[in-house]
Fold this sequence. Notes:
Layout: E1 2-3, E2 7-8, H1 11-23, E3 25-29, H2 32-45, E4 47-53, E5 56-65, E6 72-76, E7 81-85, H3 101-104, E8 119-124, E9 127-136, E10 141-146, H4 154-168
Antiparallel strand pairs: 1-2, 3-7, 4-5, 5-6, 6-7, 8-9, 9-10
Amino acid sequence: MIINEKYEADRQMITVLFATLKQAIPKRPVAITLQDSLRKEIAANGIKFLALKVKTLSRQIWAGGNAQKTETYFQSKDGKSYVVTIPGYRVYVASIFELALNDWRDKQVFRFNWQNIKSLAVTYPTEPKRKILKHLSRESFLASKVLTQTLPNWTGLWTPCSIAFRKDFGFGQK
Length: 174
């Protein structure tokens, strides 16, 4: 799945989005006295959500909420607004629509099996003399050389870093 025709989407975030949409239900229509002001607020600050099915518009809603982020409103294409909730939860449903673009992007950097990597070199463009070369074994990264810096007790410190590094860059086992 692609975001804004540019970035690969985080599959877990898409799962959360669809689970939210599946469980969210209209609790009640918004009061008639609030419809006009809410329509203007959602038009100015709401999030337009388009659901496409094979490049054809399947559903269109505008999502927004109150300033306290305690109530979510969905506005249909015809302008009718509803208070939306997930039964059994006190949750601000619109929060999934308010996420920044980078929160939707896939965070995995490398798309291959980490066990196929023999070594990894890290070079800092602003500090070219600061280079680190790592060798990868099945169990963990092992620091073989720190070319320009020596770290006291680096073996003990490196193990948690290597595990975090492996997870952050998508090298975790599945």
